[in-house]
Design a protein that fits this description.
cell membrane, about 300 residues, alpha/beta, 12 helices, two-stranded antiparallel sheet, 7-stranded mixed beta sheet, globular, transferase
Length: about 300
């Protein structure tokens, strides 16, 4: 069954790669509207609805529904852009990046010689961002290998096309990341997926306790590396992408892991608020709850 799923997924990517970006995004819009029309029958609708209601309580019912639809449309675009992100020749994809903001944050941080920890939330098109960073810098990216071996092989090959190294989210991968930081290079970590309970700490994210990884703030404290956050914002009407870089909250380097993890979440939240409906709200970010807290996905 896993092999069949891999074949179907790779075939889908191949078909999407045949489309120009404008067509792919039109298909993504249709997908997003389909998810929205399904309502509670669609899990992505349910999770998006719950997350947005939880994180943006100030929205009226009408505003919240508009946000849910906008978010699901962006989710559909993320799906339909995967062929472009993974299978187009890298230079063709890179031409879709039309502007870069605040890149001096990276170059100045690298000049300090202690390495850079790059926070890459699931916001906009993170595969385009990975290509850009891999094209310009010595870059090691941590990732969670998928269960299908064929998909894992494809991901590693495609993400490493421009020389970046892929570090699995395990002990071996942590060693790779530490060595890269000691060389004064940049490493990329996805900060907004729930870790195992023993690997995380509950700290605020959009004013709600969220199980958050300890690894990134621990690395920052141990190495003294600079922390930069960034994302590739999707522009309307298939105009391409703009990349934004922001300095990490100063408390990310604190030795107190709860203080540092909360600072990391504030950094991510700041980026998310720049393009809120391009965030991965269909993910169950608040799946684990502290004792006594209500399950928001019921």
């Amino acid at each position: 069954m896993k092999k069949i799923k891999s074949i179907l997924a790779i075939s889908f990517l191949g078909l999407m790669a045949l489309l120009p970006l404008s067509w792919a995004q039109c298909l993504g819009i249709r997908l997003g509207r389909y998810f929205y029309r399904q309502g509670d029958k669609n899990k992505w609708y349910r999770f998006t609805q719950s997350n947005i209601a939880h994180c943006f309580p100030e929205l009226s019912d009408v505003e919240r529904q508009a946000a849910v639809q906008a978010s699901l449309i962006e989710t559909g675009k993320s799906v339909s852009e995967m062929g472009m992100s993974w299978l187009w020749p890298p230079q063709r994809t890179l031409k879709k990046i039309v502007k870069i903001h605040h890149e001096e944050l990276i170059t100045n941080a690298l000049a300090k010689g202690k390495g850079v920890i790059f926070i890459a939330p699931h916001l906009g098109n993170w595969e385009v961002l990975n290509l850009y960073l891999s094209n310009k810098y010595s870059f090691t990216a941590m990732y969670k290998p998928p269960k299908q071996p064929a998909m894992d092989k494809l991901i590693k090959r495609m993400r490493a096309r421009l020389g970046s190294r892929m570090a699995p989210a395990n002990v071996q991968g942590v060693r790779m990341v530490m060595k890269a930081l000691k060389r004064g290079e940049m490493v990329g970590i996805l900060p907004d997926q729930e870790p195992d309970l023993e690997s995380g700490v509950y700290v605020p994210f959009f004013n709600s306790p969220a199980l958050t990884m300890k690894l990134l703030p621990q690395l920052a404290a141990q190495t003294g590396a600079s922390v930069v956050c960034g994302f590739a914002k999707r522009l309307p009407d298939a105009q391409g992408f703009e990349i934004y870089f922001y300095e990490g909250d100063p408390d990310i380097n604190q030795k107190d892991v709860s203080v540092a993890a909360a600072a990391m979440n504030r950094t991510v939240e700041h980026c998310v608020r720049q393009a809120p409906w391009q965030y991965q709200w269909e993910y169950k970010r608040f799946s684990s709850r502290p004792e006594g807290e209500v399950d928001i996905y019921q």
